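hey can u check if this looks right to u? its 219 residues, i copy pasted from the old doc so theres a chance i mangled smth
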Amino acid sequence: MKRRKVTKPTINVRGLKVADIVNMDIKALNKLKKADVKALSLRLVSAANKRLKRLRNADLGKLSPAYRYATGNNGRGRFKVKNQTRNDLLKQFKTLRVFLSDKKTATVKGWKAVRRNIEKRIGSKIPKTKYKSFWGIYRKYVEVRGGKGMLTSFKGADGKSGSDRVMTLIAKQFIRRKGTEDDVLKKLTEGMTKAYEELQDKEEENGEYSSTGAFFTLS
């Protein structure tokens, strides 16, 4: 029985930094042989898995958007090159590029800074015990209301974004008043419906209106 010939990589990755590989031209990458794609992937997989481990071991690290994106929310928790086809490696390579390019939520330090910034913007500290539920409510609400695009119409005159306003209301109802997730979702839905009705009435009057004060001052 003939032994299968193993193709050796032609690319020397020792002189390349992770950033160099991440920024490689996609068209050029697609032309490489599997051995070269594998060699480059090994370098990125090593760096990415170290980041994932640090996030996994950190407080609230698994709730990082970058961690959720990289793991696919299925508990995989790590990248690999073993038993991967060339197409598998190329597909994973795209995920690795996005994950390793994330300077905000793909590192423990960056994710902590993002959380602090959010809490500052909404004027409330989100307890660790409620963090998962807080974002669960936010994601479910946005999904039910038709995606993040709907939030852009709720940017007020003060410049505060629609997403910040929704998060502020969630914090007010869920954290300060200790309401249940269902209670908060119901309140948000009722408030948004009222805001839409008000918006439509004003638009009929003068064609231009963007105030959503009725929604964001709910008690």
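The two ends are 78 Å apart (CA to CA).
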